[in-house]
Specification:
- This protein is mainly beta and 287 residues long.
- It has strands at 2-8, 15-35, 41-64, 69-92, 97-125, 128-145, 150-169, 173-184, 196-197, 202-204, 213-225, 229-250, 256-280, 283-286.
- Helix content is 0%, strand content 78%.
Length: 287
């Protein structure tokens, strides 16, 4: 479900927008494990119901003071609720009855509420364009294991600054420099503790203690424009903190559990080239 609002004013480029979205999804997984042999006897089974709902609301306002100076600000709320009901059963050979494995039976509820506010100011002085801003986020996270009555709560505030400079040279050349701090939140299956039991020895799970990955990104670029085409060349550097990796851990019985953790940092740099040219009005080449 989507709801959108747009309000234009008499002043050029002054704009107020608001958006609301709601999304619901439900998945059911039924898995069976067979004991290898002449008859491949069914000896283990699992079922998992995942229900997810997302609410998203955002309001943005743009206020131009004049042709060269403008201010942008906004509020945003992202609410997510996940219910994961998981159960594994083992066949008792002596009684021929299915018995629930208590270590793999629970109903997990995950709630994540993220509230954000941002402000961006931009201006132009002759050939120099400047833009800078900051986004603040407050995260409120709650988890609950229904059958064992275990609860956990986390809340924290994060700030994400950004800056962009651009200078226009004669002959349709421009130089651009930018910096930003970003966040990549854990995916759904990186968090839920009940994921997949592939066989009697291997279990894949999420990890409630997985934190978001933060990225510092800087880029220097040159843009050349012609009447029918553009050429963009840039060099970039990115530093990521708390990169998520998967590790495997075995217990005294040889049972192996594979799960994600924030294990490493990552540094990356590179060169990018992008070229586009219109041979005809109806034909454009991009590389």
């Amino acid at each position: 479900a989507n709801l959108n609002f747009r309000r234009e004013f008499d002043k050029k480029d002054q704009l107020l927008t608001a958006d609301f979205r709601w999304f619901k999804d439900e998945d059911y997984e039924d898995a069976k494990q067979f004991e290898e042999g002449s008859d491949y006897t069914l000896n283990q089974r699992s079922d998992n119901t995942e229900n997810q709902q997302n609410w998203f609301a955002q309001a943005d306002y743009v206020h131009p003071f004049n042709e060269n100076i403008r201010l942008e600000t906004g509020l945003k709320a992202t609410l997510r609720r996940i219910v994961n009901d998981y159960k594994v059963e083992q066949l008792n050979d002596s009684t021929s009855e299915w018995e629930t494995l208590s270590d793999f039976d629970n109903n997990f509820i995950f709630s994540e509420n993220i509230y954000a506010a941002y402000v961006i100011a931009s201006g132009k002085i002759k050939r120099l364009s400047i833009q800078g801003g900051v986004r603040a986020e407050y995260s409120d996270i709650q988890t609950q294991f229904v059958k064992t009555n275990e609860t956990n709560n986390w809340d924290y505030i994060s700030f994400f600054p950004s800056a962009h400079l651009s200078y226009e040279f004669p002959s349709s050349n421009s130089l651009q420099l930018s910096y930003s701090r970003r966040i990549s939140r854990p995916r759904f299956r990186e968090l839920i503790p009940f994921f997949s039991l592939t066989d009697n020895r291997n279990f894949f799970s999420g990890n409630l203690e997985v934190n978001p990955v933060f990225t510092h990104s800087a880029e220097l670029g040159h843009l050349k424009t012609w009447k029918n085409g553009t050429l963009l060349s840039s060099i970039y550097y990115r530093h990521r903190e708390g990169v998520v990796e998967r590790i495997s851990q075995s217990d005294s019985t040889g049972f192996i559990t594979t799960f994600p953790i924030n294990l490493s940092t990552e540094d990356a740099g590179g060169l990018e080239l992008s070229f586009s040219y219109s041979l005809f009005k109806w034909w454009r080449v991009m590389l």
